[in-house]
Amino acid sequence: MHIIQASLLSLNEFFTLDHSDRLRMVLETINAEKLLVATETGSPFGPRGYPARVLWSALIAGVVYRLPTIAELIRHLDTNPYLRMVCGIESQSGVPSAPTFSRFLSRLVKHEGLLDACFDDLVIRFEVLAPGFGESVGADSTDVHAYSRGKKSGASDPDASWSAKGSKQGSSKGRKGEDGKGEKGKKKPKKDLYWWFGYKVHLLVDTKYEVPIAFIVTTAKESDTNYLRPLLDKRDQLLPKVPLKVSVNDTGYDSTENIKAITGRGALPIIPFNRGNEKAPPGITNTLGTPLCPTAFPMTYWGRDGDYLKYRCPQEATRRLCCLQDHKGTDRCSLSPYGLVIKLNMKDDPRRYLPVPRETKQFERLYKTRSACERVNSRLKENVLLDDLKVRGLPKVKVRIGLNLLVMLAIAVGMAERNRLKDCRRIISCAA
């Protein structure tokens, strides 16, 4: 653990403290002893033989202070004596050079597993302090721009790749009216594709506390769909005693394999249907899996019976006019006063027939919790410099992103250990 001789100030008024006190809390929270011992093995860092702890503290300070480059970090160390004291640097002349930091970063790349272990340790510690942590999760990916131009050949970052987010389909609205047609009756093309050259961070986030649980860094072209199961496996490994109850994800994760991975854990998959190449509703249901009565009205969901979803005629279930209105009372969908009943076996089409049907208010309510993933991604970019990386190559990008996530999680754990759990999300957003 990071230990400083000077006494730590009270955190009762955390937001009024100097940034260096925030840095001390982060350093004292992260248990990086094994990592630092491993990085000490080998040649010394720089001509002065800097200890790994000094360089580690300085890199963490760069994240807390929102310093995107090593050059800016060195300038802050030159001008801030208190920061030098926290990092263990005795004088201005003892500030490490840029090549020294670069060599230390390369050493961290070789011990990436130990860096991940620091993150995992914080996840386990936070679960003890936060009731219900890990029960409701959401997966999402966010773009990371490479420190390189995306040339067709000869890019300075050979590991980076191109990717895009958005819709390739025509817009639902034109310049006039609501029918999707423009001035000349032609559909206006939709230009919602957002392209970037770089990497992706695949995150699994607790939707209650808005704290990251697991992450995977890949090149940008990798599909989101393939990384939900590895993230859930990581959650199970770190939190084996915490049952997964809900997994909320966007349409990019809609696949039969992902649905089974969630339901196989006894959890509810909350994933909107990806219409993709869907051409016509299958059988007696609409695209989203809701059965239609003989007059094409969506039937009313009436609960689950084991592996079966039960639906009733909307006329009898909710008194919404359907059969009696269209057939003037002469032709009902069922002779029973209970109305027509249809049961769907979820095993017949796991992707379409979810335990919580997509056209229910419960699904809508649960899906709104996915905004936690977007807020975490936003904080990563705005407060811990996820989108300002100045390194090249997947190994170094992984380490820098790992440091950013480590600081975010350390702040949450540090506040929870100081009985300030209610502030963990607020602290994260104000960490810098």
Shape: elongated
| Fraction in beta strands | 5-15%
Number of domains: 3
Distance between the termini: 22 Å
Overall helicity? 25-40%
Rg, Cα atoms, Å: 27 Å
SSE order, one letter for each helix or strand: HHHHHHHEEEEHEHEEEHHEHHHH
Number of strands: 9
Segments where pLDDT lies below 50 for 5+ residues?
5-20, 170-190, 326-330, 428-432
Number of helical elements: 15
Overall average pLDDT:
83
Structural class: alpha+beta
Largest sheet: 6 strands, mixed
Task: Explain what this protein looks like in three dimensions.
The chain has 432 residues and is of the alpha+beta class. The protein has 3 domains: 14-127 and 391-429, no CATH class; 132-275 and 368-375, Nucleotidyltransferase, domain 5; 290-348, no CATH class. The chain is built from 15 helices and 9 strands. It has helices spanning 19-29, 33-40, 52-64, 70-79, 81-87, 98-110, 112-129, 228-238, 256-263, 314-318, 323-326, 361-367, 371-383, 394-417, 424-429, and strands at 136-145, 161-165, 194-206, 211-219, 246-249, 268-270, 300-305, 308-312, 341-345. Strands 1, 2, 3, 4, 5 and 6 form a 6-stranded mixed beta sheet that branches. Strands 7-8-9 form a 3-stranded antiparallel beta sheet. Strand 7 (300-305) and strand 8 (308-312) form a beta hairpin. Helix 1 (19-29) packs across helix 3, helix 3 (52-64) packs across helix 4 (70-79) and helix 7 packs parallel to helix 14. The model is unreliable at 5-20, 170-190, 326-330 and 428-432 (pLDDT under 50).
